[in-house]
Amino acid sequence: MSIRIMGTGSALPVKKVANEELARLVDTSDEWIRERTGIGSRYISTGETVASLAARACSLALEDAGKRAGEVELILVATCSPEDTAPCTACQVQKEIGAGNAVAFDLNAACAGFLFALHTAWAYVESGIYRNVLVAGSEVLSKLVDWEDRGTCILFGDGAGAVYAEKCEEGGIRSFVQHSDGSRGAVLSGVCRPLANPYIARSQEGNYLKMDGREIFSFAVRQIPKTIEEALGKSGTDVGEVDFFLLHQANRRIIEGISRRLEADGERFPMNLMEVGNTSSASIPLLLDELNRRGRLQRGMKLVFAGFGAGLTCGACVLEW
Ligand code: UT7
């Protein structure tokens, strides 16, 4: 038994911001951003929320699967940028889409969040607790980045992606691998609200995202090929059998580095970071939805999803579409 993805959806804010526009805010250029990252533009919220984007992506995933919201049993939203500490984003999505019979909660594993949520969904279905699930990755990281820091503000974009998946007897997800390394948490960090009460001196430190870009870069290029090979090994799949590798869309050079290490040709690594930037937990389901809607996926194809991010965390899964 496993779970199979039956529908996909995604949502982006209305405002698209090109590199040239960022060059008016910080000391950077379209040429530098494209050369070092592959990114040409990103979407930035001017009002859309993590919950509203996730709800739109989930509704579209249900529509694509031909399912009604009332049939959904579990909603998982992966996010590291929720609007509210309570209620959780998944409960807001449940209300928004009218999925009143679903259990709903959030999960945070930063940019690997969608994969960790999908694995959680898989475990629930395999154990027989639920039969179907909506899994979304949704972020509005634009409220967490320091818009004066050219090292980070050029990378991230806002958006959401979602899948509807259900129990299946054949095919579906074949294997999963996850890793976490809390000892390297400082490589990419951001605080929600610093400690503040009448008994301590207030911290003056800003609470923006802080990142050691080079460390993350080398972590991804070294660790992700190994994680993918581990997941392929667990499912008895050869690198050559994989139709598409859908990797976290952080940097074109990272994806190319991973494809070289795997000795797999670049054409099997689709990318949309040129248009949407790094959307953290939304990046894999956003890309999946794009491929699905363009008719590039056929039932029976073998796919690999792999992601990495703050934590540090990383994961990969092998599935049959
Ligand atoms: O989802 C996971 C989240 N994070 C990531 O995936 C990040 C992974 N890392 C990366 O993508 C890359 O490390 C970056 C794109 C962040 C940076 O690229 P890099 O090739 O590692 O550049 P660097 O940090 O080594 O900086 C090279 C130079 C520096 O100048 P100096 O010291 O050589 O004079 C930076 O100050 O480039 C400068 N720089 C910039 N210049 C123009 C850094 N950011 C910019 C910028 N525009 N936006």
Word description of this protein:
Helix content is about 30%, strand content about 25%. By secondary structure, the protein is of the alpha/beta class. The strands form 4 sheets. The protein has a 5-stranded mixed β-sheet with strand order 1-7-6-4-5, with helices on both faces. Helix 3 (about 50-65) packs across helix 4 (about 90-95) and helix 7 packs parallel to helix 8. The longest helix has 23 residues, at about 215-235. It starts with a strand and ends with a strand. Bound molecules: oxa(dethia)-CoA. Oxa(dethia)-CoA binds near residues 154, 214, 251 and 280.
Q: What is the strand and helix layout of this fold?
A:
Layout: E1 2-11, E2 16-18, H1 19-22, H2 30-37, E3 41-43, H3 50-65, E4 74-78, H4 89-97, E5 103-107, H5 113-126, E6 132-139, H6 150-153, E7 159-168, E8 172-180, E9 188-189, E10 210-211, H7 213-235, E11 244-247, H8 252-262, H9 273-276, H10 283-293, E12 302-309, E13 313-320
Helix pairs in contact: 3-4, 7-8
Bound molecules: oxa(dethia)-CoA.
Residues 28, 32-33, 36-37, 111, 150-151, 154, 188, 211, 213-214, 216-217, 250-251, 278, 280, 309 line the site of oxa(dethia)-CoA.
Unreliable stretches, pLDDT < 50, 5 or more residues?
none
Oligomer: single chain
The largest sheet is: 5 strands, mixed
Query: What portion of residues is helical?
Result: 25-40%
Task: Tell me the Rg in angstroms.
Answer: 19 Å
Small molecules bound:
oxa(dethia)-CoA
General form? globular
Query: Based on DSSP secondary structure assignment, what is the total number of beta strands?
Result: 13
Mean pLDDT: 95
Distance between the termini: 15 Å
Q: Count of helical segments?
A: 10
Q: From N to C, what is the helix and strand string?
A: EEHHEHEHEHEHEEEEHEHHHEE
Structural class: alpha/beta
